[in-house]
Design brief:
Number of helices of chain A: 15
Strand order of the largest sheet of chain A: 1-2
Largest interface: A-B, 116 and 104 residues
Number of strands of chain A: 2
Strand content of chain A: under 5%
Largest sheet of chain A: 2 strands, antiparallel
Radius of gyration of chain A: 26 Å
Order of helices and strands of chain A: HHHEEHHHHHHHHHHHH
CATH topology of chain A: MetI-like fold
Structural class of chain B: mainly alpha
CATH superfamily of chain A: MetI-like
Helix content of chain B: over 70%
Shape of chain A: flat
Shape of chain B: globular
Membrane topology (chain B): Multi-pass membrane protein
CATH superfamily of the largest domain in chain B: MetI-like
CATH topology of the largest domain in chain B: MetI-like fold
Radius of gyration of chain B: 23 Å
Number of domains of chain B: 2
Organism (chain B): Salinicola lusitanus
Family (chain B): Belongs to the binding-protein-dependent transport system permease family. MalFG subfamily.
InterPro entries (chain B): BP-dep_ABC_trans_perm (IPR050901), MetI-like (IPR000515), MetI-like_sf (IPR035906)
CATH class of the largest domain in chain B: Mainly Alpha
Number of strands of chain B: 0
Structural class of chain A: mainly alpha
Keywords (chain B): Cell membrane, Membrane, Transmembrane, Transmembrane helix, Transport
Oligomer: heterodimer
Helix content of chain A: over 70%
Order of helices and strands of chain B: HHHHHHHHHHHHH
Chain lengths: 311, 274
């Protein structure tokens, strides 16, 4: 192996290529553990989920097993809770995306300026992103949203208003508020990193040409941030599609099905109704939904990879 | 010029105001953790009070189980990070320095597994785990955390390896070093800071994870996320204790997070933003 590599890299003009070929077996051995691990923990279960979605399989009724054809899917599609959970999922993703990206962008522009104590202020502003989602849920549910003992209720009373029972009357809004509190810092962090890579001379040139602040923003900042915004939107979509802890600790999907999203619906179908077949069919739906965003994002990452290689 | 300075000052004040507003829920949690249960659960909030460590003592007392959950969190986070790095380093090394035609595909494929939603694989994993006794088991949870973070770890280690000039590795090859010698003697020392921040990111993500911990564990392998989630039905009874337990669970991660902000961005955006 050593001898081959030495001759390959000293004599052949395409030394790198020849070297790579001779190393093929060793490199395959180096990659195998990671690839096999992901196959076992991700792809095999995914295939099994597809298999289960065509099986009649309920944990508490083991006698009724067997191939179910499309029955699970027809039951699922005629279940209003499924449609409700799908709609809720999309509402959470859509609203949280708009709010986190707009707020995150505004805050990134604000924190990109120089002011006293900027580092500390920025550090405080990104902190929620590092808070365990379970803790986020409990802080908001108990100490802020609570209609009697919560801080919001106290503020409302101070202003002479009737306290609002947030989780009972505005459950979806409450969930979205919690998610945006956690994820606006992420958008801020990423967009700020993007802004800081904006070349100073471009801004200077625009200023010299007499561009207004808006023109500068519209024609220099936004195009520069284009890629970054794209990545933020795609990544957040994938994470918002799988929101769970914030709902689990606060509304429990309710009242009724008001905040039941797709992951929570699947969670309930497995652990409360023990219906593996229907839950699997719903899980396939969740995978398809995630794939719509993931494919675009993966294409982008792959494109970046080639650009990086060409450099 | 004067009005400009005024505007700058006002925007600075605004930025600080927003930062404090965003941080406030965490501050409020922190304040509550230093109250007694009576002070924490009041209609008129106590902004000024004599701080006490009573709730922390309660939260950490024997019988609260805090150390059991904290140990599980630490064990699963550290073990999944170590296993993740052990799997990722050889793979990333091969892909970064000895690429072939399939390297790009493999790398993108690995990254893409990150985007399979957890519910998509939940059911089979739950059934298989319960059949082989990995349910409510620290090893079972560790391996799930590993699978969850492996795509990010591979990607980050790969990108740090790519930053190492190829000439150095080629020189080592020419000097007759074997592939493994080059890895341990040349590449790893150079990539050590990158590996450290990758590990830190994996640690944070595993520590904060809640979906798998809630669905796959019950008590013996339950993490802090599961323990804290169990307060969800404690209607006002243990707010101070819950706050103390929460503060202990999130404080180390927030501090680590502040130090790893850049790596976090780099890792979670898969290198699109550095």
């Amino acid at each position: 192996m050593k001898a081959i590599s030495r001759t390959a890299s000293t004599t052949a003009p395409s030394a790198e290529e020849a070297g790579a070929r001779s190393f093929a077996r060793t490199t395959r051995l180096l990659m195998a553990p990671a690839v096999i691990f992901l196959l076992i923990w991700m792809l095999v279960p995914l295939a099994m989920t597809i298999y289960y979605s065509f099986q009649q399989y309920n944990l508490i009724m083991p006698m009724y097993n067997g191939f179910a054809g499309l029955t699970n899917f027809t039951i699922l599609l005629s279940d209003p809770t499924f449609w409700k959970s799908l709609a809720n999922t999309l509402i959470i993703v859509g609203a949280s995306l708009v709010i986190t990206v707009c707020l995150g962008l505004a805050l990134a522009l604000l924190f990109n300026r120089t002011f006293v104590g900027r580092g500390v202020a920025r550090t405080l502003a990104v902190a929620p992103f590092f808070v365990m989602p379970v803790v986020t849920g409990l802080i908001w549910k108990n100490m802020l949203f609570h209609p009697v003992y919560g801080l919001f209720a106290w503020v409302a009373r101070q202003l002479g208003l009737e306290p609002i029972d947030w989780l009972a009357h505005y459950p979806m809004l409450s969930v979205i508020i919690m998610i945006t509190w956690e994820w606006t810092p992420f958008a801020l962090l990423v967009l700020l990193t993007g802004l800081q890579s904006l070349p100073e001379d471009q801004i200077e040139a625009a200023k010299l040409d007499g561009a207004s602040a808006w023109q500068e923003f519209r024609h220099i900042v936004i195009p520069h941030l284009g890629q970054v915004l794209y990545v933020v939107v795609m990544l957040e979509s994938i994470f918002f599609l799988t929101s769970f802890a914030e709902i689990y600790t606060t509304t429990g999907g309710g009242p009724g099905t008001a905040t039941t999203n797709l992951p929570y619906y699947i969670f309930q179908t497995v652990f409360q109704q023990n219906d593996i077949g229907i839950a699997s069919a719903a899980a396939i739906g969740a995978v398809i939904l995630a794939n719509i965003f993931a494919i675009m994002l993966i294409r982008f990452i792959a494109g970046n990879l080639n650009a990086g290689a060409a450099r | 010029m004067n009005s400009n300075r005024f505007a700058n000052g006002a925007l600075g004040v605004l930025a600080w105001g927003v930062a404090l507003l965003i941080f406030f829920p965490i501050l409020w949690l922190l304040l509550t953790s230093f109250k007694t249960e009576q002070q924490a659960f009041t209609v008129v909030p106590n902004f000024f009070f004599s701080p006490t460590l009573e709730s922390f003592k309660m939260a950490l007392a024997q019988g609260s189980g805090y150390w059991h959950y904290a140990w599980n969190s630490a064990l699963t986070a550290v073990a999944s990070t170590v296993i993740g790095l052990a799997l990722a380093v050889p793979a990333a090394y091969a892909m970064a320095f000895y690429p072939n035609k399939r390297t790009d595909f493999l790398l993108v494929w690995m990254v893409s597994t990150k985007f399979i939603p957890a519910v998509g694989v939940l059911i089979p994993i739950y059934l298989v785990y319960s059949a082989v006794g990995l349910l409510d088991n620290a090893l079972g949870l560790t391996l799930l955390f590993t699978a969850m973070n492996l795509p990010i770890i591979v990607w980050m280690v790969y990108s740090y390896f790519r930053d190492i000039p190829k000439d150095i590795v080629e020189a080592a090859d020419i000097d007759g070093a074997s592939i493994m010698q080059t890895l341990f003697k040349v590449v790893l020392p150079l990539a050590l800071p990158g590996l450290a921040s990758t590990g830190l990111l994996a640690l944070i993500l595993a520590w904060n994870e809640s979906f798998w911990s809630i669905t796959m564990t019950d008590h013996s392998a339950a993490t802090l996320a599961v323990y804290i989630a169990s307060f969800k039905s404690a209607e006002g009874l243990f707010w101070a204790k819950m706050s103390a337990a929460s503060v202990l669970a999130i404080a180390p991660i927030i501090v680590l997070g502040w130090f790893t902000q850049r790596q976090m961005v780099r890792g979670l955006t898969f290198g699109a933003v550095k």
